[in-house]
Amino acid sequence: MFSSLSAAANKIAVCNSCSDQQIQNKAIQYAPNGGIVHVLDFTGNKIKAYEMVREEGLLMYWPTAVQNSVKTGWEHAKEARNIFLDLGNGQVNYDHLRPYLGSYSDIKSAHTVAKSPYEKNAVKEALSEYFSNTIAGSVTSAIVLIGKETVGKALPVNMDIIVKFPSDGTIYKFTFKGLVISSDGKVSVTFEPVSYTGRDAGITLSEGSYSGYRASGPDDALQRILQHMIASGVKVTIGDTIYRGGNVAVTRVICSNEPAKGCVAAE
Q1: Residue 254 · residue 206 · CB < 8 Å
Q2: Exposed, middle or buried by CB within 10 Å (0-12, 13-18, 19+), for 159?
Q3: Residue 231: CB partners within 8 Å, gap ≥ 6?
Q4: CA-CA distances (angstroms) from residue 11 to 48, 73, 115, 176, 225?
Q5: E strand or H helix at 169, and its extent?
Q6: What is the three-class DSSP state of 71?
């Protein structure tokens, strides 16, 4: 759907965090039979163009002017990259995602996200909308001028985004996977949840069943873990007493590999 005269007339390469020599080598690699190559370095904030001519088996090349359309596309892609990095900044407050969560806007903790594929998917889709709505304009403009593949290399693929739940301080991690362009031209970014990255005060949260689960750490975090265990129907005992809720001081939780035996919390 997206096309570009500049992208069609020239070859465009990306060489992030490259030296001038590496950028030159990349240009030669992209046009071994001649032509004009633009080499973009998004992380190093550089853009260079070379003209290549092959005659009698020899390749000659020299710097040439950067075309305005390519420079404009590069600038739009850089803008999208910077917005993306600023939005993520390593962490996104769950409250910022609420407008995009629909019926899942009442999620309160990474404890439930860790155990629910439906909540994981809801947060994943909310992250996509949150980021897409902000960078879509810059990304679309950049794709028209320099192409989707080039723009994709501007964005920090596999960058981890931590979603923090302010109600209890728990977190869950998602990874940015790339750009998607729908048949009607809508641009969106995609995320995937990273299994076993739920944390409560540094304690790894259980995914699915609590079978074989073990936890030790701060008392308040263990207290929340116990609450989520009994909410999930898990039998928890402290000494000879079945735990049914309320505040208790424990130092560790150990669960049997046999679900029917439940978990034991030690004071």
Answers
A1: no
A2: middle
A3: none
A4: 12, 14, 47, 27, 55
A5: none
A6: helix
CA torsion angle 144 145 146 152 (round to 10):
-40
By residue count, the chain amounts to 267
- Count of beta carbons in the 10 Å neighbourhood of residue 229: 23
Number of other residues whose CB lies within 10 A of the CB of residue 221: 20
Amino acid, res. 94: Y
- Please state the pTM of the whole predicted model: 0.80
Q: How far apart are CA 248 and CA 265, in angstroms?
A: 10
- Alpha carbon separation from 233 to 123, 189, 210, 214, 261 (Å, rounded): 24, 37, 10, 17, 12
C-alpha–C-alpha distance, residues 180 and 148, integer Å: 9
At residue 72, what is the residue type? T
**What is the identity of the amino acid at 214?**
R
Q: Which amino acid is at 107?
A: I
What pLDDT, in 10s, does the model give residues 144-202? 999 888 988 888 777 889 999 999 999 999 998 888 877 777 888 899 999 999 999 99
Q: How would you class 199 by CB atoms within 10 Å of its CB: exposed for 0-12, middle for 13-18, buried for 19 or more?
A: buried
* CA dist list (Å): 73 to 92, 97, 182, 232, 233: 28, 29, 20, 51, 55
Domain boundaries, the chain: 5-66, 70-199, 210-266
Please check whether residue 153 is in contact with residue 102, taking contact to mean a CB–CB distance below 8 angstroms. no
